[in-house]
Amino acid sequence: GAGVSQSPRYKVAKRGQDVALRCDPISGHVSLFWYQQALGQGPEFLTYFQNEAQLDKSGLPSDRFFAERPEGSVSTLKIQRTQQEDSAVYLCASSPSSGYGYTFGSGTRLTGV
Amino acid sequence: GENVEQHPSTLSVQEGDSAVIKCTYSDSASNYFPWYKQELGKRPQLIIDIRSNVGEKKDQRIAVTLNKTAKHFSLHITETQPEDSAVYFCAASMNTGFQKLVFGTGTRLLVSP
Predict the structure, then answer these.
(1) Does A98 score more than 80 pLDDT?
(2) For residue B50, what are the β-bridge partners?
C-alpha cells in the first residue's frame, strides 16, 4: 500500500483482556518498528524487526508484551492481561533500510476500562 | 542511554513570524536527528532530518541546525502559517545496525492568524 496501515484504530480493553494490534508496513520495507506514545509524550521505542528477525526488544515494558513478524511483512503486537497503564497509542513505523526516514502509521489507541 | 530534552513545551507566534524549537542530546555517539510534525490524532510525519556530518539543512521554510560540540540541534520555521500549528518532536539516534529513535517530549506550536 501507499502507507503504513494499522488496525484497529481504537481498542477498548477490559483489565486482564488480551489484545492484538496489527501493522501492515509499506511493501518492500525491510525494517519495522513499534513505538508506544503515552498522552502528551513523545513516542518510546518498543521493538525492531529486520525482515522476520526481531533484532531488538529492549523497549518492551514487560513479558506481557510480545511482537512477531513471521513472514517479514505484517507484524502483530500482542499484549496479554492488559492493565490500565498499558493505555497509550501504539505506533508502527517502517523503513526501506536500517531506519533512516521512518514512515509511521496512524497508530492504535488502546484504552483500558 | 540517550536522553533528549526539548524546549519550549509550548510556543505561540503570529502568522508570518519565525519559530525556533531547540533540543539537546546526551550521547555524543548519536548521528541522526529527525524532526516530526504530529497533528492532533494523526501520525507523526517526518519533516526534515540531518546527519552528524552536516551542520545545517534547509527545505523551503524549514531548516535544521546541528552543533555536535554542544550536542544540540534546532528547528527553524520561517514565515509561519496557521497550518504549521501542531506538535513537533525532535529525536536522536545512533546507528547500532539500525536507527532506534529517542524522542523529545514535544513542542506544541500555535500559529495565530
Answers:
(1) no
(2) B33
Cβ A98–B44 below 8 Å, yes or no? no
What's the one-letter identity of residue A49? F
The minimum CA-CA distance between B37 and chain A, rounded to whole Å, is 11
Cα A12 to the center of its chain, rounded Å: 16
Look up residue A58 and give its three cell numbers: 529492549
Question: Tens digit of pLDDT for each residue in B42-97?
Answer: 999 999 999 988 899 999 999 999 999 999 999 999 999 999 999 999 999 987 77
Q: Are B44 and A100 within 8 A, CB to CB?
A: no
Which residue on chain A is closest to B90 by alpha carbon? A42
Half-sphere exposure of A90 (CA within 13 A, CB side): 31
pLDDT above 80: residue A1: no
Which residue did the predictor score with more confidence, A102 or A36? A36
Task: Give, in degrees to the nearest 5, the angle at Cα A36 between A100 and A105.
Answer: 55
For residue B49, the distance in angstroms to the closest alpha carbon of chain A comes to 8
Q: Is B70 exposed, middle or buried (0-12, 13-18, 19+ CB in 10 A)?
A: exposed
Q: Which of residues 69-98 of B touch A (CB under 8 A)?
A: 89, 91, 93, 95, 97-98
User: What is the spatial distance between Cα A55 and Cα A48, in angstroms, rounded to a whole number?
Assistant: 6
